[in-house]
Amino acid sequence: MTPAPHRSHTDDLLSFIAASPSPYHVVASAAQRLEKAGFRELRGTDDWTGATGGLFVSRAGALIAWYVPEDAPAHTPFRIVGTHTDSPNLRIKPAPDTGTSGWRQIGVEIYGGVPLNTWLDRDLGVSGRLALRGPDGVPRNRLVQIDEPLLRVPQLAIHLDRSVNEGVALDRQRHIAPIWALGDPREGELLRRVAAAAGEDPADVLGWDLMLHDIQPPGYLGVDREFVVASRLDNQVSVHAGVTALVDAATGATQPGFIPVLAAFDHEEVGSGSETGAQSPLLERILSRSVSARGGSDEDWSRALAGAFCVSADMAHAVHPNYSERHDPDHRPLPNGGPTIKVNVNQRYATDSTGIAMFTAAAERAGAPWQPFVSNNAMPCGTSIGPLTAARLGVTTVDVGVPGLSMHSARELCGVRDPGHLAAILTTIMVGD
Question: How far apart are CA 276 and CA 194, in angstroms?
């Protein structure tokens, strides 16, 4: 059976995932844990002068958090863990109320690389945020999470499509509108339902960022419960590990020798090109401002970056037992074998030998295993925020991730031990020698 320390970490991970069906909820869940550990939120309009201790900035679906030890020089190098808060899913259109043939439906748009068949015949809820009328004309935001079986994308019966098991592609534009009632479309019906769930007047809703999520709770799988199964493991496994590591670094008996940083970006699944994505100046500006707030100069900022190190933590591919030929024959990570170090010489990952050495040395100190990963030469690999962060900040970066199956599915799988191994290694990196 799984040892208690690993089960304790993954139990907490499952609670985190259940409370975080959207990027905005991920940020709220992370912020809640940071505040409980003594971190305080800074706003862009605040005066940051002299700010030390645990600090964080949140913006929509992104969060940057860091810890400044007392008397840390302004040029103290950063130890950055980069992650992302978003997951591929179905997002609700601006004019959502639609329907046909006597059914009321909801219009959705595909977000990211979604294997659409995994969203068929699942009970779906609604989550995200509402932008509401606020005082003095300034909008206010309200999170909403409806964990009820409101919607469903029904699959066509096999009697009406005998070729369904022959790999016929689903029509991405016409056949993904979920059903939720009988009758003709009713304009504003979804908005009224969501606003009521949030305890708000629909007339005060000026805009929204809403999406669907599978309401089946996360859990364990396997004869010895050695696997975690849940929605959004990509990439909440890494966000949760990053939060855990940052809190441990800030509250441990030994003060960090660096400035530990957690950067949780949004929109990684669609290219990171937004104000809260890894291509934006968000992280750079916050870290630069933190140096200035401690009396640092441009020289101090340059020194802090020159000694910095970044771990880009995202999910990775475990070898698939039914499709092993699609993996590199000499790099076949398995669940519970430790996080993978992801290498791609074409810079889809930012890993180089220096990053490998730093990560493996930390794994050794943490007593945690690790595995190498490289894609099959005949299969193009994915990417992560690692190359973006490395290019923007010019810091040594290593791409790593917990290996799993069913990546981007509505329900993914990983080993029960690996999330804890990742958190232990990240803590070691953040604290330093």
Answer: 25
